[in-house]
Amino acid sequence: MHYAGFTGSSAQILALLSLLFFSTLSGILYGVIALVLPHLKDAWPKAWGFITASFITLMEFGFPHIFPWHIGCGQTSFLPVFQLASIFGIYGITFLVVMVNTTLFDCMESARSKTSFPKWAVIISIAALATTLYWGSNRVQMIEDKIESSDKIRIAMIQSRLRSSKHFSAIMQLSRKALGAGAELLIWPENAMGINTFNESNILKIHQMIKQFHVPMILGAAYHTTDKKSVYSSSFLVNEKGKFEGKYNKIKTVPISEGIPFDLRWPWFEKKYPQFFTVKKGNNRAYWNLFGKIFSPIICYEAIFSSFVRKNIEGGANVLVNLTNDVWFNKSDAAYQHLMLTTVRAVEFGVPFLRSTLTGITTWTDPSGKMHHPSPLFKQHIWHHPVSLEEFPTVYKKHGNFLIYICFFICMFSGLIFYTKRKKLR
What's the pTM value of the predicted model, to 2 decimals? Predict the structure, then answer.
């Protein structure tokens, strides 16, 4: 909730109340889990780990979140386990982590209390973990080998560090350097051009630069709506001739800092706190044909929602381009957490995921979840590397969250049996 305090001094009390509200809301999830777990252990002493994993996974999926942190996101750097996301989505990793940890707890509890050893739970957990590690390692190696032998495109993503009066000239200088070094695609992050720099003079400079190097460009910019009351956070495609030929306006805005949750609007509130209504939502997704692939832009916050990104994939996207501005996180862990929440999209849908940021962390995540050359935070940086545009089929892409249906059935079936037994005892 670090971002809630970024809304300006005139709304600090409101930001604090929002922080308390959403923190409490997030805490309710773990409060419910803490209340239910002892009952699950009593009712199903031998199978409670499996049922608990189903219950927590189901709660993680269904509980409302502003920033939907998942237990499975903690495995982003452990690639063999992270491959489960290609089958079950991020929820499959959450399921495995919970199941293995409840088994470890049972083992320690049995040693402490001298009770029977949870033999079957240990066998199932070891088998599940061993199978995941073996299959996951092979999948990572297969993807690595195919990427190594595939054709690549030299892509440059410009990280300009901070917005300032000299920002535009700095990002232009970095861009010319990257294009001069052979970049075949240039990408600027979210809000690389703000409402003060997105003007005819600067657009002409971009046109001239692109026309000189004859290289396509994807750029992020903010500009006023016609009535000047709001802005669009947008992504543009500039073709090799320097012509702006594609546009995407951000659809899913950040609650509190860019818009009020559930789109609630009260005239008196909007007048007093206009900063909460700064970003106007777009309506349509964008698909741009480059290098024989379909590139689809998603802006910042949108990338952390699998259900949102799935619509881009279903629309034909082969490559996801995430333009991000994490300046409000400063050098906190929040910037890394935001990165972890987005990288899973590459594994779930088997496509390359390009993340261009204003202040870091800029990187390319391949379909195995490996992040290539992540940039440092708050430093001017030219991310310029060859990128494979290879995609890989995934079960999750085809069948979606089928694990959630299984978890729902397990929880309902277990609850029904528990209720029947309690009723008979009465």
Answer: 0.89
